[in-house]
Write a structure and sequence with these properties.
single chain, 234 residues, alpha/beta, Rossmann fold, 8-stranded mixed β-sheet, two-stranded parallel sheet, binds NADP nicotinamide-adenine-dinucleotide phosphate
């Protein structure tokens, strides 16, 4: 990086988003986080991180987070359980629309990176069950991804397998456009997904692509050019 790029991360108080923030800081990015409860976010985030109060379900809270931002990473998902379809839609679909609109209005110069899930593009019994239990979360994620693809922004949509808390770099990962279904055999650690996000920022091959990321047998590789080599734009 020649200049210090600023990344806005939404969904950074825990899980994959929190891993992404830590990885970005390690690489020298300036990081801004949009959080519903800044005090709680401040307790888990490095003091270097700028925190802006906001909520993706409330469109008018997003503009203040955008000035000076080069890239947006959106990993927000419903954390309250049980959650009805209304909250799922408001967070996953409306929240993406609001974030896209704010990014577009601010003239986002860089990437819009979005965390999605396997099973949004192909059905399975587990996906069916998940949609039933979790307010059609996969359906709303699929529709959100379609909005991103149809936007004028440069984007990357990362469809993760079932998330685990294993440390980064312990398993090999596969990056593909196979559109795997949601199934117990397709897993990946949050820390590995975070690494994929950070690498995607650097690799032009990921521009305007949607792809799956899952753990796979074999030796972990850090050759990101090779890992992304097979990607084709949507
Ligand atoms: N579980 C899986 O196997 C799986 C697989 C693929 C993809 N995903 C998706 O991947 C993403 C990351 O999952 P994860 O388990 O690592 O993290 P997570 O525990 O689901 O964390 C979600 C984050 O979103 C934030 N958030 C929720 N509602 C928000 C709102 N209205 N405005 C702003 N921020 C909001 C939460 O902040 P608060 O602290 O304020 O709640 C939290 O930081 C999620 O979107 C999840 O649905 C999950």
């Amino acid at each position: 990086m020649t200049t210090r790029e600023r990344v806005l991360v939404i969904g950074a108080t825990q899980g994959t988003g929190l891993h992404i923030v830590r990885r970005l800081l390690r690489d020298g990015y300036a990081v801004r986080v949009l959080a519903r409860e800044p005090a709680r976010a401040g307790a888990v985030l490095d003091s270097e991180v700028e925190i802006v109060r906001g909520d993706v379900t409330q469109a008018n809270t997003l503009a203040a987070a955008m000035p000076g931002v080069d890239h947006v990473v959106l990993t927000a998902g419903v954390t309250h359980r049980p959650a009805g379809e209304r909250l799922v839609r408001a967070t996953v679909y409306d929240g993406t629309m609001h974030t896209l609109e704010a990014a577009r209005n601010a003239g986002l110069p860089g990437q819009f990176l979005y965390m999605s899930a396997l099973g949004t593009t192909r059905g399975s019994w587990l996906g069916f069950l998940l949609n039933r239990i979790k307010g059609n979360a996969l359906k709303w994620r699929r529709l959100a991804a379609e909005e991103i693809r149809g936007s004028s922004l440069s984007y990357t949509i990362i469809r993760a397998g079932i998330l685990t808390n294993a440390p980064a770099g312990q398993r090999a990962i596969e990056i593909s456009q196979n559109e795997y279904p949601m199934a117990p055999r397709y897993r990946v650690s949050r820390a590995d997904v975070a690494e994929v996000f950070v690498q995607a920022l650097r690799h032009p091959r990921t521009r305007n692509t949607s792809f799956d990321v899952v753990s796979t047998p074999g030796q972990p590789s850090r050759d990101w050019t090779a890992l992304f080599a097979g990607l084709v734009p949507d």
